[in-house]
Amino acid sequence: MREFKCPHCGQLSAFEASECNGCTQPLMFDPENMAMVGVKSALECVNRNIIGCNWCAVATTPYCLSCSLTQVIPSTQNTQNVSLWTRVEDAKRRLIYDLRRLRLPIASAGGFQLAFEILSDEHGPVLTGHESGLITVNLAEADDVQREIRRVSFREPYRTLLGHFRHEIGHFYWNALVHEGGFLSPFRLVFGDETENYQAALAAYYARQDWSDDPTSHISMYATSHPWEDWAETFAHFLHIVSTLDSLAGLPLSLDARAQHTLNDPYLESDFGALLELWAPLALTINRLNRSLGLADAYPFDISPAVKGKLHLVHMAISAFRNRHESRAAR
After folding, report:
1. What pLDDT, in 10s, does the model give residues 68-87?
2. Taking Cα atoms as reference points, which of 75, 73, 39 lies closest to residue 57?
């Protein structure tokens, strides 16, 4: 995402900043106005002193919008848990920022309210996943070593906390954007029949012996397991794209008028082709930069024509949902 300005001195401040690097004044992020504010302008989230949350508290609770969505936290008696929980909430705030920029609600028309539980493996195995609006995150995913072990074990080219959040939120929005949004027929045409037994499909996926697959049909191997997982993986990549393009907007680059228009707000860009036209060279560039530093590719994926079509459907479903709700609000 792009950087923000300190309200005291005007210096650029990162999204996670709790203090200005220039004037050292304490800062908070206001998700309602999408701006940094001084601590005297609003109430601090009570988690500021515990996990370094730098968001303003909402009017009805002592928590910020992001922290208030967390229903269950790991034991804070364990200092390692607190450290990992801090990382989880950092990633979640970026997710909530994405949703605010896309103008998507945190409750569905079907009555599901978005909520999170962050659990540790201390008392038994924890599976990261989504069910009826509740997203469960395994605290171990915030441990770089444990996450890398799982990434290699599951043959994944990419595994991050933010990626988990963006994937699981895709499951949450499937009902509102696809089923209730009138996109069920095109979804089945592009992604497949979601009525296929989900648990059986996942069991078959993990029981595979042959892991070779046609990379031109899905964005990732896991996307091949079931149409719902294909949607969630694709939804996550759409968020990767618009968020990274938003970061590009703040760089001192020479761009043509059309590119500048897209970067004015990638989250609300109506032309999907314009998004991908900017994304393709950017993905290539960041991968080359990483290789120059001896790092793995930042975006180790190829967007094939089939995947492009799936991303386009995600974009269409989000845009249609937003347009419907904004039209109702205007009336």
Report:
1. 999 999 999 899 999 999 99
2. 39
Distance CA 40, CA 28 (A): 10
H-helix or E-strand containing 233?
helix 227-248
Cβ(85)–Cβ(39) below 8 Å: no
Token pair, residue 25, equals 């004044």
3-state DSSP assignment of residue 245: helix
* 7-37 pLDDT per residue, tens: 999 999 999 999 999 999 999 999 999 999 9
Q: What SS3 state is found at 129?
A: strand
Q: Select from 219, 229, 242 the least CA-distant residue to 310.
A: 219
Phi, psi of 308 (to 5 degrees): -60, -40
Name which of 204, 202, 238 is nearest 219 in CA terms.
Answer: 238
Nearest CA among 204, 160, 189 for reference residue 306: 189
Counting Cα atoms < 13 Å in the Cβ hemisphere of 70 gives 23
State the DSSP code for 177.
I
Contacts for 229 with CB less than 8 Å, ≥ 6 apart:
202, 222, 223
- In three-state secondary structure terms, 191 is coil
